[in-house]
Amino acid sequence: YVDTLLKGSSVGQAQSQLALSQQPQSVNSYIQLLQQREEENRVEVERLTAEIRSLKLQLLQVAGIGENVR
Question: Coiled-coil ranges per the record (predicted)?
């Protein structure tokens, strides 16, 4: 009942306008957060890829040494 009264009043209209004006900011903040996480994930993938390459090289070197010992 109070909500119905407020919707017809200037207070209710102001609250609705405020909610609508904050919505794009909220969406923009969310998009920025997603972009930041995407960049963090990309950097992490690059780091892990480099680590995998390094470990593969070490493994090949150890395997090569093992074959030479036989």
Answer: 31-58
pTM across the whole model: 0.56
Rounded distance, CA 22 to CA 11, Å? 16
Per-residue pLDDT tens over the stretch 2-24: 454 444 455 555 556 666 666 67
d(CA 13, CA 5): 11
Q: What's the structural domain count of the chain?
A: 1
Give the chain's count of helices (H) and strands (E). Answer: 2, 0
Written as six digits, the tokens of 55 are: 């470990």
